[in-house]
Design brief:
Shape: globular
Largest sheet: 8 strands, parallel, barrel
Distance between the termini: 37 Å
Radius of gyration: 21 Å
Helix content: 40-55%
Order of helices and strands: EEEEEHEHHEHEHEHEHEHHEHHHHHH
Amino acid sequence: MQYTPFGNTGLQVSRLGFGSMRLPMITVNEKHVVDDEQAVAMIHRAFELGVNYIDTALFYCDGLSEVTVGKALKGWRDKVILSTKYPFNGGFRETLETQLKKLDTDHIDFYHFHGIGSGFFEHDRREEAVNGALKAKEEGLIRHLSFSFHDKPEVMMKIIDLGIFSSVLCQYNLLDRSNEDGLAYAKAKGLGTTVMGPVGGGRISGMPPEVAQRFGVSAKSSAELALRFVMTNPNVNIVLSGMSTLQQVEENAATASNAATLTDPELAGIAAASEENKRMSDLYCTGCNYCVPHCPQEIVIPRIFQLMNYHRVYSITDYARGEYNGIGTNPWNQGHKADECIECGVCEEHCPQKINIREQLKECHATLAEATK
């Protein structure tokens, strides 16, 4: 296992971290619960292979992840760095004490403000949470205050500049490099950096082998390619992978134990293939979002075009269809699909790329609305 200093914390962390959001689940008495026997065995195997950072959260696995992680930490607590998160939907102290009980531990090493962004600066619980966290640090209940992040890169930098956080957890992968500058900024400011979604929520691991081969990278699988890409970035300390099988643990640990990062020619091959794929895709959407505020039907045009590119460019068709069919079904995936288009043409009037949006939306819906396999 490869290790690296974690910002200015003085800790050495494994390049691979164990993400506990996708622990194996089973049904017992009509209830969906974590398969503790399998999950604990997986976590212990990860520890045996050198993983020394494990991440969980209050609501992962129907609220049971922290309990299972607590069981897995027995006999390992002094060797492992524990991370969990405060979700801002309850009193700070009460929530922290609940999590300490669920994890069956007397302290949390990295306590994250969960998924904060621009709204954090006006959040009605902000002062309570910050003051509560600082008091908890004085008492030794938490060792470091951190934050996880899903907003725009410039917001990440603004949060870092508050000067109260020791590390940041954000998304970064082969298909989504939007936080690249933010990660560099975090490292320059002395924060530890942890990346979630290295395989893009399964998107990259779902790429057919021939797609990965076009990048000119020598890797046994698309998942290995994804992990090696993230680990090549010198501004990334920990690659957090949500693992649900023992095989995934073994394979990811093997990748993280390989000191060889992607070479300059391999990275150049990825960049060249990505650019060529953009030219091949026929969709030249830059994601500027100029069209979105003007659509009377609230169609998420850039998002739909992005999903179409996952299908066309990377052959990640099942994922693209699943995400498309989920548009408008929950608070995290708001808006409407392409079949709501009334062909008013207002979007095209505001498109700097002069895309024939109405026709493209028809094609997107015809392709992506098909049932997932």
